[in-house]
Structures are given as C-alpha cells and as structure tokens.
Amino acid sequence: MSLADEIARYFAAERSGAWVFIAIGIVSIVLPLVFILRDGASLAKGFAVPVVIIGVIQVIVGATVALRTPSQLAAIEA
C-alpha cells in the first residue's frame, strides 16, 4: 500500500469513529430523558443532567470531526 492509501484509510476510520461517537452521544441524550419522563424521581434527574450534557458534547465533537475530515484529506492529497 502506498502512503496515500494509508492516509485515506486513516481518515476513513477517523470519520467512521466520529459517526460512532455521534451515535453514542445521541443515546446519551435520549436515554436519560426517557428515564426522567418515565420515573421523574430526583435520582433520575440528578443522573440525567450530567449525562445529557456529556451527550451533547459528544455529538458536537463527533460532528466536528466528521465534517472536518473530508477537507483535511483533500488538503493533504492536494
């Protein structure tokens, strides 16, 4: 494999990882909200707030990486 092929493979894996990170973030947002709506107890609320915040951060970071990766690859290939 050439260096260009290895770089393309790396960025493809980076983008795939970003989509996994986004999926986990979405689950981290939805699941605590389900617990709050179903239970509504203070324990569920206490657990949900930080997990939702972390989920939002995960989605933002994952989206940033997923959207940035193609332009990085194009800049390297140019």
Description:
The chain is an all-alpha fold and 78 residues long. Helix content is 92%, strand content 0%. The chain contains 2 helices and no strands. It has helices spanning 3-38, 42-77. Helix 1 packs antiparallel against helix 2 (42-77). The protein is rod-shaped. The model has no long low-confidence stretch (mean pLDDT 90).
Helix content: over 70%
Terminal residue distance: 19 Å
Count of DSSP strands: 0
Beta-strand percent range? under 5%
Mean pLDDT, to the nearest integer, reads 90
Helix/strand-derived category reads mainly alpha
Q: What is the alpha-carbon Rg in Å?
A: 18 Å
The ordered H/E elements are HH
> How is the main sheet built?
none
**Would you identify the regions where 5 or more consecutive residues have pLDDT less than 50?**
none
Q: State the oligomer.
A: single chain
Helical segment count: 2
Shape by Cα distribution: rod-shaped
How would you summarize this macromolecular structure in one to three sentences?
Helices cover 92% and strands 0% of the residues. The chain has helices at 3-38, 42-77.
